[in-house]
Amino acid sequence: MHVNDKVALVTGAARGIGMAIATRFAREGYKVVMLDLNPEIEQAAQALKVAGYEVRPVCLDITDEAAVRTLAERLDDWWPKLCILVNNAGISPKHEGKKRDVMDIPLEEWRRVLDVNLTGTFLVTKMCLPTLKSRGWGRIVMITSQAARTRTPVPGAHYSATKSGMTGLARVLAGEVARFGITVNCVAPGRVESNMTAAVGSEVNAQLVGSIPAGRMGRAEEVAAAVAFLVSEEASYSTGAVIDVNGGSFMP
């Protein structure tokens, strides 16, 4: 299957890690669907179109099951060519740059994080699976977090719980779909330069960098490189796995 016949869908693609993944795919010749609730997705996609890449922006709420079901219609001739899904969309609420402790998290906030990070991932994955199965080849990558692997001081309990949940979902799904030529893996970034990590402030980030053996924060492009490997033919025997991209801050 030639790369030009492959369509990749990346959620949370308007900025940061999602944008870096979409850009990496586009440069490698994939047709890329860039999905995000943020209207900035139109501008992000336009930047790649101007550079000559084939991309389609979709502004959509992944927590809305009815909206997710419109994906096939909205993508039209691209939908049957879909064979790569990267579940990257996620939120991590901060209040004055800090997380709330468990006892202080309002139920509404808890539910919103679960809806976006976990249920949204489930809905998009469920929508894409029939097409991937019909092609007899597919790659699903979950962008989880170091917070799913060990305790970290910055994310709230809801964020850590949902990223751990994505890892569990990936492992169960990997066992279910391997016979269809589909792999399901996770990439778990540590501290990476992004709008999300910037929300805690430069002072906190400087303190965290001091505990990272690599001595710096990661770049979104480095996460995209790990994803690029997992969707390649060379990674066909890797499924249910987690790749850590954290500069050595967590070594299981």
Structure commentary:
The chain is an alpha/beta fold and 252 residues long. The protein has one domain (3-245): Rossmann fold (3-Layer(aba) Sandwich), CATH 3.40.50.720. Helix content is 41%, strand content 16%. The chain contains nine helices and seven strands. The protein has helices spanning 16-27, 41-50, 65-68, 71-75, 107-135, 157-177, 195-198, 202-209, 220-230, and strands at 7-11, 31-36, 55-59, 82-87, 138-143, 182-189, 242-245. A seven-stranded parallel sheet has the order 3-2-1-4-5-6-7, with helices on both faces. Strand 4 (82-87), helix 5 (107-135) and strand 5 (138-143) form a beta-alpha-beta unit. Helix 1 (16-27) crosses helix 9 and helix 5 (107-135) packs parallel to helix 6. The longest helix has 29 residues, at 107-135. The chain starts with 6 loop residues before the first strand and ends in a 7-residue tail after the last strand. The model has no long low-confidence stretch (mean pLDDT 94).
